[in-house]
Amino acid sequence: MQISARGDYAVRAALSLATAYPTLLSTQAIAAEQDMPRKFLEAVLADLRRAGIVRAQRGAEGGYTLARPPRDITIGQILRAVDGPLAGVRGLRPEETRYEGAAENLPRLWVAVRAAVRQVVDEVSLAEMASGKLPGHVRKLIARPDAWEPR
């Protein structure tokens, strides 16, 4: 799985908002804290606002806050809001792929890959991520000896 810069920035911005929740944060404050370009951050926050993950308040005391408590927002929701579906194969959803011959069973593998990704990003909330108290099944994955090894 490849996490885009947009996805990475969206999750980091949402984590800043989670730690400040329900207080409003300005784009300038988030950009400074996370060392992000403000213009790019504004575009990412606009995507999150359209998806109902954050809400904006205008004015001198304005800024952004999460639209729901951090425990009710998953990392997967944030990634989908800015990048679309989590797993795609040549622009198709895994279950939409069709192959002939030796590759005929490949769609099953693509669906399994998507399910594995969902098992992590859809089951970790902003609150868990911000506190570092990840679910047990995610901690087990991180603890595997090969988890931190590049391949």
Automatic annotation (TrEMBL):
UniProtKB keywords = DNA-binding
Q: Which InterPro entries match?
A: TR_Rrf2-type_CS, Tscrpt_reg_Rrf2, WH-like_DNA-bd_sf, WH_DNA-bd_sf
Pfam families listed in its UniProt record = Rrf2
Q: What PANTHER family does UniProt report for this protein, alphabetically?
A: HTH-TYPE TRANSCRIPTIONAL REGULATOR ISCR, WINGED HELIX-TURN-HELIX TRANSCRIPTIONAL REGULATOR, RRF2 FAMILY
Report the protein name in the record: Rrf2 family transcriptional regulator
Which species is the source of this protein?
Answer: Micromonospora fulviviridis
